[in-house]
Amino acid sequence: MKFTNHNILSFFIALSILLLPLCANAQSEVKTVDKIIAKVDNYIILESDLAIAYKDYLSRGSNTGPNGRCEVLENLVVNKLLLAKAEIDSVTVPEAQVDAQLENRMQMMVQQIGSEEKIEEYYGKSLDEFKVEIRDDVREQMIMGEMQRTITKGLEVTPNQVQKFFDNIPKDSLPFYSTQVQVGQIVKKPTMSKEAKDNIKARLNGLRERIMEGENFEDIARLYSQEPGAKQTGGNIGYFERGQLAPEYEATALRLKPGEISKPVETDFGFHIIELINRRGNEFNTRHILILPKFTQKDVNKSIQFLDSIRSLIINDSISFEKAAAEYSDDMNTSSSGGYFIESEAGGTKISVDELDPNIFFTIDTMEVGSITKPLVFRQQDRSEAVRIIYYKDKVRPHRADIRKDYQKIKQAALNKKKSEKLAKWFQESKSEVFIVLDDQYKDCQILN
Asked: In the record, which residues are listed under signal peptide (predicted)?
C-alpha cells in the first residue's frame, strides 16, 4: 500500500481528536490473542493495538475500504516512528505538562460520565489507579504531538494559497459547517484574606522545616502537595527554560542554589515551596509542593460584585467587552483574544457548538445573541471556584463553506494539507533511519515500500 498524504492526514487528525474514554472502552471490549505484529526500534505494535485502533477508526465513521486495516497499521507504525525519532532527536515533554494534560483528560471524562464515582464504578478501579494506568499513553501522545510540531515548524500559507486551495475544491464537495457561535467570558478569581494566606504559608513553612530536618522532599510532596500527579512525581516537574513557568516561581527558583529550598511563594496557581535540583545553560530543574487557595463565601461575593460592575459598564457602552476582558479577566486562555473562546484547529473566534464546554453550551442555549449573563460561579479545571460573565456575541447558522465567512477554517485546512505533505515526506526520509519490521501476515500492506 502506498503511503499517501490522505493517510497521514487522517492519522494527523485522528491523533488530535483522540478521546481516552473511547479508547479505554474499546480496549475492554476487544478480545484477541496477542502477538507482536510490528517493531519500530524499541517500540512494538501488538495485534490487540491494531484491533483497538481499527475499531476506533470505524467508530468515527471512517470508510477504510479493502485496505482499511493496512491503513490503520500504517498509522500505528508512523506513531512509533515519531516516538523512536523523538528519542533519537531528544524531543521530550516536561512531566509537569504530562500531569496537567492527564488532569485535563480526567476532567473531560468527569464531564462526559457525570462524576468521579461513576468513572470508578464504570472502570472498576480508583481514579488514581486509572491515572497511573494511562499516564504513559498520555506522555507518548504528547511526545508524538511535539514531534509533529517540530517536523512542521515554520510552515505557513499565503492568502493566495488559501484562495487556490478553496478554488480547487469541487463545489459539490465543499464541507458543511454546523452551527458556530462567538462567545466570550470575563473571569474573576476570588482573592484571599491576608489571614488565610498567612495560614497557608505557615503550613508550607512547617513542611519546609521537616524537610530541612532530614525528611525526604518527595515523600512530603506525595503526602501533602495538591498538584495533580504529585503522588506519582514527588513534586518533580523536570527541566524548563526561562519564560515557561509562572514569573514568581521562576524568579524564586533561579535565586536558589542547587539543593536549596525556598520560603513560600505565591503564583496564580497557588502557594509553593520550591527546591532547585539543577541548572544547565538556560534550563533549570525543580521540584515543589503546592497548596491551593481556599476561598470563603465573602471572597467569592467580592468577585461577584466586581464583575457585576464591569457588566454594567459594558451594557452602558462605557467600555467594550473586548477591552474589559483584556484588562480585567483572570483567564489567560481567553483574555488575550478579547475574552473569546478560540476554535481549536483554525484559531478563529467563531467556534462550533460541539467544541464548547457543556456548561457554556447550556448557558448560551437560554440566552439571546448580544446578551451578557449576570456573574456566575463555576469551577475551574483545578477545581477551585471562580466567577465569570458570559457574552453571547454572534451565531452563524449551518452552511456550506464560504471563504468570506470561514476564511480561518479554510486557511487551517490548507495549512493541514501542507503539513500532511511535509509529514509524508518526513516518513519516507526517516523510515530508513530506524529498525522497522512487520509480521509476515502484513507484508502485503507494503508499508515500507
From this structure: 1-26
